[in-house]
Fold this protein.
Amino acid sequence: MVTQIRNGRVIRKAVRLRNYILEELGESIGQQSNLRTQQIIFLHILKEMDGNLKGFQRNQEYQKLGLFANSPGNSQGDPYSILTGKAGLFLDLDFGPRDDKSILDTRILFLGSVYEALKSQERRKHRGVYYTPYGLAQTICRLSLDSFESNECNSKASNLLGLRILDNACGSGIFLFAMLEELLKRIKTSARTVVLSNISVKTNRLDAIASYLLRHSLFGHDLDEDAINIAQAQLWLALYHLAGAAPSFIPGRNLRVADTLVSEESDDQYDIIIGNPPYMRLTSRDVKYKHAIKKRYSLTREYNTHALFIQASMAQLRKGGILGYLIHKNLLTLDTFSSFRQSLVATNDLIHLSDCGPGVFSGVTAETAIIVLQKGPTIDPSSVTLSVYDSKTGDCSVTAAIDHEPYFNLISPWNNRYLLSISPEIIPYLLHMSRLPLLNTEVTIKRGIETGSNRRFISNEPKSDGNWMPLLRGRDIAKYDVKSSVYLNYKPDELAKPGRRDLQHIPKVVVQQNSEHPIASFDSGRFLVLNSANYMFNASEEMLKTICVLLNSKLISWFFKTVMTNNAGLTVNLLPNNLGRIPIPSSPDLTLFSMLCDVLVHLKSASKSSLEESARFKIWHEILAETFVVEAYFPHLIKDKKVFNQLRIILNSLQSRSFDLGPFDEKIAVSAKRILKEFEFLNHK
């Protein structure tokens, strides 16, 4: 009952607001006859809003309207509840004069947030469109303007007013709204007066300045006509809010329906392009559309729309112009885009990269980043600024500012991955590792067997008929341990990708495929491997065991997360090509590492039934083995070799004592810890 009363109040307030806005619009229309088309659009939006609030589910007329209609392709949850909740915030707005500390009130954006919320998850995923949080849009606008203003003369108010700024996938206009606010803040503080159309205007006349910016500076394109209408409505409300009365026009001339990727190319040039372009692959589009894409763009291996939007945007920028985009982090790391990343920085300047991590969009796990580029190249590029975005504060905490040349010298050996999580202190370590041999030069790396139907070929128990063999899945692999609990009916001629026919019997290193970093174990030749894991072979057992120890080390975990996944907080696919690019020491002591692997496998097995052995495994794995790994990679940095000599003696003695480790000398562990302390960056998460 309480909910019904509350919703009833919201409905009454919504109807009053609708009538209020329509009355003000009517007065404006009476004075400006050229606004009739915009009036019809805006009336349509308000009518649909009103229809939802009154309970359109019982009214067939409103089910046909489409914008907020509860149709199968355009609904999520209960539109009535969503709208009444949002409207409650919106209706408390004061449309009269107000304090300018908050120049634009973000509650105006309720129309866009409701529109996006009512789209079905399936439809949003299909089109790759997600509603950008306002704080994130503000941050991208601020970083883009900061980059533009790094040229001192560009910070003048007259130059800010002369900008041409485009969001070429503007949706309901949240970036245009955020950019309007950011421009108003800067213009207000940069001068006492500005010149608009040859007339001096005091900067406290923010409504006049905003009106000028919306007529001359801010532009938006989008595929969705309804979203464009929403953008017009929200920007009109922003002007209304500033002026305290109905504006003389509804923003619309610079907002148009267009497909940025395939629309007829324009000669228009912009100073800044901002936005959150749709993220999707184009495999679902028709042949004609894909042909148009292939004809226009140089990217041919994988049509990720983020890459295409960047390429299209750079063509629309004037030289020296700024691009500020929110993108999927895989664009920065996937080998597929190596040549794209290389060409991008060969002709433009990378200004800023900010790690946004996962969870930017509600219900979406994809990790994102902000990228800011300047069209160039310029004669004297600024440094590359790296930061981490905080969604709670909207701030980007700078972690490093690295000159262009050392930054690009660093990323070029790793297929031009744009690295986010580095600092000047670790660059020497990464540069040294970039000169080492790669893992794929020592072993062959493959994904496991693809059955085509796990239900048909995999069983918890071997059956009497068929060729049933023990099988390892990714989940069955731990560091220095495997536990097979299923069997595969190995019929190579019937499996989708059967792999090597002798796979079960060859010695190999098996590695989880879905993990934050490599997790490996050695298999002497007992198991088949499913495609949820990778395996490495074509090397001696000593080399394979050495690789097992290296992959399980904290050093390689740090390297993989820093270079290969850009510190992804979620599990990733550890594909053979990425594993193959892991550097390995030039001349590791294979005999010693092989014995070390045997000790760790033994201790891991013993630790399952003994707390004492579990503690011992932890010391050997996290301290002693790690020290050996660090020494193998950076022998020139370690002067005191005593601890290694002592450990070699212990390992050599084990050959005749069958893993009887005896009392452990804690002094060796203390010495090893002292060495690892010099590599503190390995402990940073």
Remarks:
- Confidence is low (pLDDT under 50) at residues 1-41, 48-99.
- The first strand starts at residue 165 and ends at 167.
- The two ends are 50 Å apart (CA to CA).
